[in-house]
Amino acid sequence: MLTGVQILLLGGDARQLEVIRKFTELDATVTVSGFDGLHSSLDGAVQAEFDESLFDDVDALLLPAVGTDDNGFIHAVFSDRQMQLEDRHIARLPKHCKVYAGMARPYLRDLCDKHQIGLIELFDRDDVAIYNSIPTAEGAIMMAIQNTDITIHGSTSMVLGFGRTGFTMARTLQSLGAKVLIGVRRSEHFARAAEMGFTPFYTSQLLQNTGNIDLLFNTIPTMIVTAQIIANLPSRTVIIDLASKPGGTDFRFAEKRGIKAILAPGLPGIVAPKTAGRIIADCLTQLITDDSIKRGNG
């Protein structure tokens, strides 16, 4: 239980509804802002106007997937009112408070560093990333089905990157009967991909492996699907780029060539917000509970 723990949650989307539900069930004191347009009630949470006084006596500040933009504005789909996180807000947080976000831009990092407030980026954690790879893969498959006139079964599909998302993406394609090529950078990934029945190649040899591809899924967040690569792809190829913005694809050249290329970051929050919210809520619960115990509250 988190009785006595003060949580402030600002903005977000449907994922945050699961986070709020989880913490109110655990008897935390939850104050939220940025939900004034929500048509359902938030049982157990206190809705408040965004004001610097909210930051007093807070044990945990919860921000959306992308904590703030480059100017401190907080994304809030359930409100038309702007919330801008500023120096004066972070200055009022108790020193033991931690700030939690999916990922943080330099603006938020700099604020927390300046005031020596702990900042936790959830999407950097292996557990969160692995769980999130499941709705990401499902969403990517959905997009592939919507944008092709062939089945995944029997297709030649390429996955670039064999990290947490690439691994799940490749295994899902394989289970549907696709021939899966994996672009890797490390020798241990090459060996593991071969052991699992994929066709691995090193990304330095990408150009030589693109001649007969139906679907290309990129998870590498640097420019890898260049104009040269796109020029070598069959015209039927569909590119689905799962890397964080701006992705790793030359979308301008893809459009010029008539290749369908889709940037699709953040799929968990789009295709399965309830599941994605539970993943975040479970991770936050463990982190905040551990922190509370360390402070002698549990």
Ordered list of secondary-structure elements with their pairings:
Layout: E1 6-10, H1 14-25, E2 29-33, E3 45-47, E4 60-62, H2 87-91, E5 98-101, H3 106-114, E6 118-121, H4 126-146, E7 156-160, H5 164-175, E8 179-184, H6 187-195, E9 199-202, E10 215-218, H7 227-232, E11 238-241, H8 251-257, E12 260-263, H9 267-271, H10 273-294
Helix pairs in contact: 1-10, 4-5, 4-10
* Major sheet: 6 strands, parallel
**Percent strand:** 15-25%
Write out the strand line-up for the largest beta sheet, numbering strands in chain order. Answer: 3-2-1-4-5-6
Summarize model confidence as the mean pLDDT: 95
Q: Helix-strand pattern, N to C? A: EHEEEHEHEHEHEHEEHEHEHH
Low-confidence stretches: none
Structural class: alpha/beta
Radius of gyration: 21 Å
CA(first)-CA(last) distance: 8 Å
Helix content: 25-40%
Task: Give the overall shape.
Answer: elongated
Total count of strands: 12
Number of helices: 10
Question: What is the structure about, briefly put?
Answer:
The chain has helices spanning 14-25, 87-91, 106-114, 126-146, 164-175, 187-195, 227-232, 251-257, 267-271, 273-294; strands spanning 6-10, 29-33, 45-47, 60-62, 98-101, 118-121, 156-160, 179-184, 199-202, 215-218, 238-241, 260-263.
Key terms:
single chain; 298 residues; six-stranded parallel beta sheet; 10 helices; 36% helix; elongated
Task: Provide structural commentary.
The structure is a single chain. This protein is an alpha/beta fold. It is built from 10 helices and 12 strands. It has a 6-stranded parallel sheet, with helices on both faces. Strands 9-8-7-10-11-12 form a 6-stranded parallel sheet. Helix 4 packs antiparallel against helix 10. The longest helix is centred in the last third of the chain and has 22 residues. The chain is elongated and about 60 Å long.
